[in-house]
Amino acid sequence: MFDLRQIVLSLIGYTLLRHGNTNPPQRSVAIVGAGSAGLAMLKALVDLPDELTGGWEIVLYEQRRDVGGIWLPDSRPAQPPVLPETPLYPLLHTNTPIPTMTYPGFPFPPGTPLYPSHECVEQYHQDYALHYNLEEGSWDVVVEDHNGHKIRRSFDHLMVANGHNHEPHILTYPGQDDWLSRRSASSWEREIIHSIFYREPQRYANRTVVVVGTGASGRDMASQLVLYARKVYHSGRSHSDPATGPVELKPEISNFTSDAVVFADGSRAHDVDAVILGTGYDLRIPFLEDGGEALVKPKSSKRDDRVLTTNLRYLFPLHQHVFSLSSSYPTNALAFIGLPIFVANCPSDFAQSIYAAHIIANGSLLGSREELLKELDASEDELRSRGYDPYYIGHRLVDGSSFDYQDSLIDYLKERKAIPDDGTNFVEDWRREAGTFQHLKRGWHRVEELGEQGTWLQGVETEKDWADLMKRLDQWQKEWEKQHGLVFPQETVIF
Fold it and tell me: Distance (Å, rounded) from C-alpha 274 to C-alpha 195?
């Protein structure tokens, strides 16, 4: 049995409890989180054959008011040092085409833009839960009351699916405290905040802002801020995919003086009012840390097979980024869904969930702990041979390997007769093909400028229709750019 006491004490919210029957449960499974990964895990468990799951008890714990994870907006704004419930900001749109983001067999509704706002993604997760009755029927709601009464439960298996965009990774620089203590030349009170607190670009009207970090959120913030701010500097190691608009590119910040931000090349910005850190998130699991099931050792690469360790980038030792290999409990007792980064979450989460669900049902599908640790060693060595440090890249699936990873999980089950082999891959051909398209985003922006969204989206309903739309749009934009002699940097495609 896996003791969930610390998790229950740490979560303030509601739980969803499914009762199989009135008899004592033969097996109990707890899922933490009702975002993309948690819904995928619940769906995979519900899909298991009845002969495997008869008498199971499945409990879903969610800290927030509804399903959707980070796509669910804040109910109340938060101010530092209190962390908001989500990093979502009102102007957020997807940076990948939505057909590639879907759970298999469940496309977005007809008429959805190819790169929609966050509201569409939030609604998609709610529609998925309703369609498959993942939050209806014989579910009870159990609330921790305001008197602080706690519920202690024990479970055979724990599925951690609470995401990894909660604990901001905050850089500090020499001299920043002195810089913060003085007002800027324009009399604004200076600030350094993490992007988790960023919401409205209008707040920075007529200010000068430095955005740190050249990932998706950094580029997005810089592109939005330039419409309102007096000036925007974009600081980072590289600018292979720059923000749009008149943004001044800068290298990393070196330090601060009382009146300037100093960059690594020695250049200075004297007129800065605010610095926004788009520097990502630390990999933390507070409820496991509090219960002693996970150690926090920043930058560590020393493995202790008796306990899980996070170095803030990588959680180890894990089998296939899913099952804990800690010797403190069986190998199928603790699993993580949704750790891989720079992937399309829904299909990746669902592949992991199918894999985890079948191994929960039949632990003999896995080899011994010793064999699995050797496999992990070999996998990490293979990454090193390609020039990657596994303890630095963490759960990033490098060199476009996310599709192969998903297929490998399902193929493993097929090879062991856990699921039927229908002769097809888990990752559909159209998803792989979409990963090669280089003109989609620019093409969709041109469609929006021409006001032709309705024409392109007319009759698009099925996955096949969405796949055909992306192929036609990519070719249409490619030919237009060639005709006009336009050349753009290669797009970063995250699937």
Answer: 12
